[in-house]
Amino acid sequence: MWNAFFMTGVLATLVSSVYYSMTARRRGIHPLESRMTLGKMNISMGILVALLGFNQFTFEELDTIRIVIALMLIFVAAVNLFLGSRNYFRYRDAWRKEIKSER
Question: Per UniProt, what is one Pfam family of this protein (predicted)?
Fold first, then answer.
């Protein structure tokens, strides 16, 4: 069960990260929209790194190195999720205000 969830999650977050990265860097996009899309990319990358960290706990032999690496990956994922969501919501609100002011 975990293997199917893990592979699906890794593939979905990998595809979404690449998609958001390419979308944010295309020409002619509004700078606030680009930053908002990069926030989505950071959220996707955070989920990907968290899945890789949690996957370390599924192995039979848990040694100290594996636990330390897993905790480091989970920490990096948490920071990425926090900063990505903060940037997404900040730039989304600023972009909406700018769109309303243009009308």
Answer: YtpI
pLDDT digits (tens, 9 = 90+) for 4-36: 888 999 999 999 999 999 998 888 888 888 899
On whether the CB atoms of residues 50 and 79 are closer than 8 A, the answer is no
Q: How far apart are CA 57 and CA 35, in angstroms?
A: 34
Nearest 5°: phi and psi at 43? -65, -45
Task: For residue 22, count CB atoms less than 10 angstroms from its CB and return exposed for 0-12, middle for 13-18, buried for 19 or more.
Answer: exposed
Neighbours of 23 (CB within 10 A): 15
Q: Which residues contact 5 (CB under 8 A, 6 or more apart)?
A: none
Note whether 36 and 91 are within 8 A (CB): yes
Residues 6+ away with beta carbon under 8 Å from 9: 47, 48, 51
